[in-house]
């Protein structure tokens, strides 16, 4: 045997024949098998379980990649070892005239095609999966539970999370994935705030989300709304208010401009600065609950500024925000009902029997207590109410109803509930419209306040009271008869959700 003259093209020792590479190949085969199995399960069986998606589109491809890496590392090490021990390694020569090489080439091409196909399929589905409500709402179960549950009970339960939170286009898709990566880190290391603060910084402007479905030029006109209440007295006296809500519209080509949707920035632009007094100085109000300065630019370009007497600061233009849908409809998908609203609703639906004495007060009471977690809350609610109504079979369904209210609106693990998230749509429990329409914002000459600050401009009260009183409709509007005593002051001074 002549070592200097090796036979041409000796059989190449397989670089994959080592433990590391073989393990890698087993992992590759296993993950491919699992991927296809899970993929078919996912497509055929219509599970609604986020974990199968995570397994299919993250874990299985992850293992595939890991297996390939192991095989490659094994091969590289084998190559290095061979090179070192033999001092030489035959050059890679592909000779298609040899059946063995043709076979390997065939496998290689088929393998590459399969790999490309699987990764195309995989990334397409990974993309769709990360955009799904399951992924957003259920993966980080505790963190997103408040939003998911309130969303499922809202009017947008069939609108995907991403349609409001990301919207169309590549730019926001990338932004969302970047901030999503940070959120993953925050969840993994338990660094997320409880509750999640709002208004969401850098929320995509409503023009690109809400307005994709809600045509801002649409003329809504008047809405007829009835609010049912029960007073906190012995007989849970019913009281109702029927309002004509003057929603109107904002675009002259589609109907008269006026009413509440006049603000929609189609013809006019309404801007404001949110600031609050902190020990004598004005600081920015991130919650946007205190608005001392407002500017209107009308269709003709006429500018009018309004400010409260106390606010004398100069305006930094970068602090000015334009009113959009979210300044009024900030809870379109996640409404955390207050104890008062939720119990009123359950009473009006008969879920809680209104003939149980003092039940309104007692039910609201249990929902305004602090509880450490849901289990404790549900138990305490049952114990308290059962204790108040001994030997009373009608309390059982009432307890169920109150517990259901708790589960759907209170999330102690995330510290999320009605009192953490202001709702800007009205003015009863939160300042809402009265942040600007409180009659205290004056023009520069001090002559005029923001109009629409009396009770019949945004809505007229058609009927109010109970029983027969509700049939006495007055189209021109009635004066509000506050139940009990005549009251003075802003509604939300007294009404905070627990009353
Ligand atoms: C109809 C549009 C819409 C849909 C659909 C929607 N959201 Fe929201 N979401 C909002 C708005 C508006 C806010 C409040 C923004 C603000 O105040 O800055 C919000 C707030 C949030 C917040 C901040 C905390 C809070 O409770 O306000 C989280 C987290 C959130 N959404 C997650 C989700 C998830 C998860 C889904 C799907 C299960 C979803 N959202 C579906 C519009 C939507
Ligand atoms: C993908 C489409 C879609 C998007 C995006 C969307 N909505 Fe809606 N919205 C709907 C549908 C559908 C309804 C239900 C209509 C019905 O029940 O008649 C609805 C109902 C509403 C209602 C009336 C019901 C209620 O809850 O008072 C409001 C207000 C509303 N949306 C505001 C918003 C706001 C604000 C946004 C942006 C944060 C938004 N929507 C984003 C489709 C959408
Ligand atoms: C100045 C506050 C304000 C702004 C800004 C505003 N809305 Fe409204 N919108 C209201 C009020 C108040 C109602 C009456 C419904 C209610 O009482 O809950 C309403 C009603 C609606 C409804 C329900 C109509 C129906 O037929 O039931 C939709 C949908 C809606 N708004 C969408 C939008 C969208 C989209 C935007 C942004 C382009 C927007 N709104 C901007 C205050 C506002
Ligand atoms: C950021 C401040 C601001 C908020 C918040 C606000 N408005 Fe206004 N609104 C204005 C200004 C400014 C005008 C124009 C007043 C004027 O011309 O004197 C106006 C005008 C109106 C008008 C009269 C429109 C017309 O026909 O001329 C109505 C009705 C109205 N608002 C209802 C509401 C309702 C309902 C809400 C709460 C859901 C609300 N506004 C929240 C600032 C605001
Ligand atoms: C700037 C517009 C505006 C003015 C001014 C206004 N309201 Fe309202 N009001 C609203 C809106 C918007 C709602 C609807 C809230 C909702 O749908 O949750 C509402 C709701 C109500 C309700 C039902 C409350 C609830 O949320 O359960 C009552 C009662 C009411 N208003 C009384 C009054 C009285 C009394 C005045 C005068 C002191 C007044 N409003 C002035 C806009 C206005
Ligand atoms: C001085 C405090 C105070 C002010 C200000 C006030 N209320 Fe009330 N309100 C009460 C009390 C107390 C009750 C009785 C609660 C009960 O018996 O259940 C009540 C009851 C009500 C009820 C029926 C009960 C229910 O379940 O909500 C409505 C509706 C109501 N108020 C609306 C308003 C509106 C709208 C405003 C602002 C225009 C307002 N209130 C201002 C103290 C106040």
List the secondary-structure elements in sequence, H or E. Answer: HHHHHHHHEEEEEEEEHHHHHEHEH
> Number of helical segments?
15
The domain tally reads 4
Beta-strand residue percentage: 5-15%
The biggest sheet amounts to: 5 strands, antiparallel
Residue-averaged pLDDT:
88
CA-based shape: elongated
How does the helix and strand content classify structurally? alpha+beta
Helix content: 40-55%
Alpha-carbon distance between the two ends:
101 Å
Number of strands: 10
Instruction: Using the CA coordinates, give the radius of gyration.
Output: 33 Å
Strand order of the largest sheet: 8-3-6-7-9
Give the distinct bound molecules. Answer: heme C
Provide the low-confidence segments as ranges. none
What would your notes on this structure say?
- The protein has 499 residues and is of the alpha+beta class.
- It folds into 4 domains: 19-130; 134-203, no CATH class; 221-332 and 423-494, no CATH class; 339-420, no CATH class.
- The chain contains 15 helices and 10 strands.
- It has a 5-stranded antiparallel beta sheet with strand order 8-3-6-7-9, with no helix packed on it. A 3-stranded antiparallel beta sheet has the order 1-2-10.
- Strand 6 and strand 7 form a beta hairpin.
- The longest helix is centred in the N-terminal third of the chain and has 37 residues, at 50-86.
- The chain starts with 18 loop residues before the first helix and ends in a 5-residue tail after the last helix.
- The mean pLDDT is 88.
- Bound molecules: heme C (6 copies).
- The site of one heme C (HEC) has 15 residues, from helix 14.
